[in-house]
Amino acid sequence: MRVLVTGGAGFIGAAVVDALLAAGHEVRVLDALLPEVHRGGWPEHLDPRAERVEADVRATPDAALDGVDAVCHQAAMVGLGVDLQDLPGYVGHNDLGTASLLAAMDRAGTGRLVLASSMVVYGEGRYACAEHGVVRPGPREERDLAAGAFEPRCPRCGRPLDSGTVPEDAPLDPRNVYAATKTAQEHLAASWARVTGGTAVALRYHNVYGPHMPRDTPYAGVASLFRSALARGEAPRVYEDGGQRRDFVHVRDVARANRLALEADLPSGLSAFNVASGVPHTVGDLARELAVACGGPAPVVTGQFRLGDVRHVVASAERARDVLGFTAEVAFDDGVREFATAPLRS
Q: CB–CB of 270/186 below 8 Å?
């Protein structure tokens, strides 16, 4: 199969390229090589066997899709952003970029898409009240967060809630700009699939970490922020009380999930899958394990918060296992130890 990987020079994209080449596929990479992300041009670790096209996905050249059987769409502006001034950038890169790509795929007759989506489309995770069963708490209030009341409460009775795993059929409830653009990407892909009869797969990544994450940027994931601080000899700064539950999944597992999604016999239309380890940890767990593995200072729990953050998001990994045959292989402890000394991208 010949696969176009958009954003293939990036953190996850380059790992996807490795996984596809190792499986015997032909790979073409399309990447804009934006200087704020790729200061030195094409990264040295990108496999030289991949064909390279330097172009912006927002103006996808038709030649990039010549002879392509499927597209693995990784190109995106990631992270929660700094403030609302980032909004045009997120919508332009993520939503206009996806729309331009889908239009080019329609012109080329390319009928298979794997989309890098995210667990942020769910908003808060799944919660249950002892009295009212499964409930959906609203966004957390600034006054509660400032008072250190971080846990969502039942919207009907105000009682504490138990958090559980989020299945793919949970309602989508994006609560920040990045989440809104990822949700829109899924809707655009679904519309394309309905009109063309194509197959679209939305892989809802949970917290991805691993070698070649970007360093020292407010748009990076929490694992990279912790690792960058430790590399400077500083303590990782943990927001809230560190009790936020997440699912940390290694980038090699994410890349393998993309390969399996491209190769799977799936019906036309949009299918969504959580891509996660299936074993939750807290943000505080990650900071402590990484500090020990790096031999650095212990984390500092700051009590700070961001209004766009959610408290707990933990995935149900069953559907990806049952349909795609995907089960994460890199254990949390092993992955964190590797990450402690792995190269980061400048």
A: yes
Cβ–Cβ under 8 Å, residues 17 and 84 = no
Angle in degrees, CA 204, 271, 170, rounded to 5: 60
Distance CA 111, CA 191 (A): 13
Our answer to whether residue 178 is catalytic in this structure is: yes
On the question of pLDDT at 304 being above 80, the answer is yes
Task: Please name the residues in contact with 128: beta carbons below 8 A apart, sequence gap of 6 or more.
Answer: 134, 135, 161, 162, 164
pLDDT at position 81 is: 67
- Measured between alpha carbons, how far is 175 from 139 in angstroms, rounded to an integer? 8
The per-residue pLDDT for range 31-87, each reduced to its tens digit, is 999 877 777 789 999 999 999 999 999 999 999 999 999 999 999 988 766 678 889
Q: What pLDDT, in 10s, does the model give residues 178-196?
A: 999 999 999 999 999 999 9
Q: Can you list the positions of beta strands (E) in 8-83?
A: 26-31, 51-54, 70-73
Show contacts of 60-66: CB within 8 Å, 24+ apart: 60/6, 60/30, 60/100, 60/101, 60/103, 60/104, 61/104, 62/104, 62/107, 62/108, 64/4, 64/28, 64/30, 64/104, 65/4, 65/104, 65/105, 65/107, 65/108, 65/110, 66/108
Given the residues 122, 127, 178, 209, the one annotated as active site: 178
Enter the tokens of residue 47: 């496999």
Give per-residue pLDDT as tens, 214-256.
887 666 689 999 999 999 999 999 999 999 999 999 999 999 9
Q: What is the pTM of this model?
A: 0.95
In three-state secondary structure terms, 307 is coil
SS3 191: helix
Gap between the Cα atoms of 219 and 225, Å rounded:
9
Supply the angle between the helices 97-108 and 177-196 in degrees, to the nearest 10: 20
